[in-house]
Specification:
It is a multi-pass membrane protein. This protein has about 575 residues and is an alpha/beta fold. Among the domains are: about 120 residues, Helix Hairpins, CATH 1.10.287.70; about 110 residues, NAD(P)-binding Rossmann-like Domain (Rossmann fold, 3-Layer(aba) Sandwich); about 90 residues, Regulator of K+ conductance, C-terminal domain (Alpha-Beta Plaits). The chain is about 45% helix and about 20% strand. α1 packs across α2, α4 crosses α16 and α9 crosses α12. The radius of gyration is 33 Å and the shape is elongated.
């Protein structure tokens, strides 16, 4: 049978309390044995010298000597007695100055600090707080969401039952509420009924309990949870979750969508209203060799080129920028506009080259299904036999995948998987060290190959790019972006790890300046890629920023976003310090 969170906390505390009690008994027992033994030896040595002392005097001498007080009213006359006194003194120093302070710290100081920490960690949010997001747990996804909320001045409250972790986040400036996650009172104290969204990213079983409990405290507030297993989706729905995010499936599909193929066709990666955001590789098209100015003049559709990327890095949009085989165009337009782009530049009559997927876990299998649905043949390289079925044919008319069992770091295995003829490689294991190794290995084998890698920790993203990855995606960023957009906050589209498209209100100080103003990029690191009208539609023909109200579409990383907001929206943010920022358009 399952256990509640309260039972689990009690079970965790009981062994710790038992170990502390046992250690305390041992320390006190050692001290009592030392006092009793030394008192007996003292009496025997004193009797040998012809002195007679009571048991009270023996214990008195032993304790005063062990504690280094040594009043000198009782002393030995013989050398043997004096040597014994030295031994009692030295052992007493060890006991009094090492063991007893440890005992005091464990049983007096530490519990007192824990009580102080628990007392200063909030148990309730202010009653005026509303339209905030409740984040249950503290993993990479919730941390990324909280950091994004802080930059956008959107209230976010982290709900934890670990007092120590809650205190650390509280010291970092996060809004925190401490309480048992299986108690409806915790969510009431966190203002769940006034919240915009409740998000839980714990295990599937814990998320079920959280969704069920939070629904008691807030019947109408949306609850979004993550699921690691497809079979958990129905259970989480029954528990009251409105949105279940299968991170492995989403990450696999997103990685598959970044494989640009070999025919030059576009791949949609997101949208802003009716405007689709897509990527298209220049390789294999007539765009290769042209400058950006010449390419823009040759466009017959109303597609807008938002940015140019090479190896995951943004390039300055200048007319003389040369388009190469490694160039990736970030496009915006309606479905009809993008179809017209394909009609002009896609290589007709050629099938997509296969894709090699390293790793047959949930992410790798999800990427394989997405590629197969698009008609892209793919091969999964998996070390563990039986983890992936050998081959199957998905929907009629689509491609099937193949499986090669073996070590992905073996050149012979990669050759069997078809690396020499592949258009791209997806590196999907959850081990960042292995992903860096595989990325570097594949890049050395085929320098022109497109490589999209998965990252678990943000600190390894830059390393993966240096190893040769063209794109990097992670659970944290994918999950935070998906949940952010589901909350109805300012809509975002993830281009690659470290590069996002996001909306901001138009600063009055940028009115009538060029959309391609390089001063903004030099000052903040953000690229102004487009202007959005008040109704949220992308203005294709606008080359300067209007003075009328509206929004800007920016491209950059979190540091660039923070600098832009501080530089151009600082006054607006100060005026709105008590509430959330402009929420922008919802895709």
């Amino acid at each position: 049978m399952g256990h509640t969170a309260g039972e689990r906390r009690l079970a965790d505390k009981l062994p710790l309390a038992g170990r502390r009690s046992k250690a305390g008994v041992v320390i006190l027992g050692v001290g009592a044995v030392m006092v009793a033994l030394y008192s007996v030896i003292f009496s025997l040595l004193m009797a040998h010298e012809g002195a007679d002392h009571s048991w009270a005097a023996s214990i008195y001498w032993t304790i005063t000597t062990m504690s280094t007080l040594g009043y000198g009213d009782i002393t030995f006359e013989s050398d043997l007695g004096r040597l014994f006194s030295l031994w009692v003194l030295l052992s007493g120093v060890v006991y009094m100055l090492v063991l007893l302070p440890f005992f005091v710290i464990q049983y007096v100081v530490t519990p007192w600090l824990d009580r102080r920490r628990a007392a200063r960690t909030p148990r309730k949010v202010p009653p005026t707080l509303r339209d905030h997001v409740l984040l249950v747990g503290s993993d990479a996804v919730t941390q990324a969401f909280a950091a994004r909320a802080e930059r956008s001045r959107v209230p976010a409250v982290v709900v934890l039952e670990d007092v120590v972790r809650a205190g650390e986040l509280h010291d970092q400036g996060r809004q925190v509420v401490v309480g048992p996650l299986d108690s409806a009172a915790t969510y009431r104290n966190a203002g769940a009924s006034r919240a915009r969204l409740v998000v839980s990213t714990l295990s599937d079983t814990a998320n079920t309990n959280v969704a069920f409990t939070a629904r008691q405290a807030a019947a109408r507030v949306p609850v979004a949870v993550t699921a690691s297993k497809p079979v958990s989706v129905d259970v989480l729905d029954l528990a009251g979750a409105d949105h279940v995010l299968e991170l492995g499936q989403v990450l696999g599909r997103e990685m598959a969508s970044r494989v640009l193929g070999s025919t030059g066709r576009y791949h949609a990666i997101g949208s802003f209203g009716d405007t689709l955001i897509a990527e298209a590789a220049a390789r294999g098209t007539c765009l290769v060799g042209l400058t950006l100015g010449e390419a823009l003049q040759s466009l017959r559709s109303r597609v807008r080129v938002l940015a140019i990327m090479r190896k995951g890095r943004l390039r300055k949009m200048t007319p003389d920028l040369r388009i190469t085989d490694a160039t990736v165009l970030v496009l915006a337009g309606t479905a009809e506009d993008l179809d017209e782009y394909d009609a002009q530049f896609q290589t007709i009559g050629c099938s997509e080259d296969p894709v090699v997927i390293l790793g047959g876990g949930r992410v790798g299998r999800a990427a394989s299904r997405a590629l197969s649905d698009e008609g892209v043949p793919n091969t999964i390289v998996e070390l563990e036999p039986g983890r992936v079925e050998n081959s199957y044919s998905v929907l009629e008319g689509t491609a099937s995948y193949a499986v090669v069992h073996g070590d992905a770091a073996d050149q012979r295995i990669l050759r069997r998987a078809g690396l020499e003829h592949a258009s791209g490689v997806l590196v999907t294991p959850r081990d960042d060290d292995l992903n860096v190794y595989l990325t570097l290995f594949c890049r050395r084998l085929r320098p022109e190959l497109q490589i999209v890698s998965r990252a678990t920790y943000e600190r390894n993203v830059a390393t993966l790019y240096r190893a040769g990855a063209d794109g990097v995606l992670s659970y944290a960023t994918i999950g935070a972006t998906e949940l952010w957009n589901h909350a109805g906050l300012s809509h975002r589209v993830l281009v690659a790890e470290g590069n996002e498209l996001f909306l901001v209100p138009r600063p009055a100080s940028l009115a009538r300046r060029s959309v391609r103003d390089d001063a903004v990029r030099r000052r903040t690191g953000c690229h102004i890629v487009a202007v959005l009208d008040e109704d949220g539609t992308l203005a294709y023909d606008t080359e300067s920023i209007p003075s009328a109200p509206g929004q800007l579409l920016l491209l950059g990383d979190r540091h660039a976003e923070r600098r832009f907001r501080e530089t151009y929206l600082g006054r607006r943010r100060r005026l709105r310090r008590s509430g959330p920022t402009d929420l922008g358009a919802r895709g």
